Amino acid sequence: MIPAPNFLAGLLIGIFNTSWLTVVLASFGWALAFCGYVSIVDTARRDTTIGDFRARARRLLFGSPVLTFYAIEFSTALVTSLPVGCLTYLIKKIVA
After folding, report:
1. Considering its fold, how many domains does the chain have in total?
2. What angle do CA 92, 30, 85 make, to 5 degrees?
3. How far is 86 from 34, CA to CA, in rounded Å?
4. Which of 15, 29, 46, 55 lies at 20 to 30 Å from 91 by C-alpha?
5. How many CA atoms lie within 13 A of 55 on its CB side?
6. Structural domain range at position 14
7. Residue 16 has pLDDT above 80, yes or no
8. Which pTM value belongs to this model?
C-alpha cells in the first residue's frame, strides 16, 4: 500500500524544486520526515507492527524489529515520493 502523504509529497517536491538534485535530496528528506511523523503520530500502528515483528522474529534487519519497521517506512516513503517527484518535475520542465 502506498500511503497518500508520500504521493502528495512527491507531487509537491516535483512542483517546487528547481533541479534534479534538489528533487532527490528533498525525497530523502521527506522519507526521514515521514519516519518522524510515524514515530510521533501513528504510534498505534508502529507499536502493533513492531510487536508482530518481535513475535515472529523472522527476517529482521540486523535482528532489530524497530530498525526493520523504520527501514520499511523509509523505503516506502522514498520509493513513492522519488518517482512521483521526478515524474512531476519532468512534466513541469516539458510544459514550461
Report:
1. 1
2. 20
3. 18
4. 29
5. 6
6. 8-95
7. yes
8. 0.90
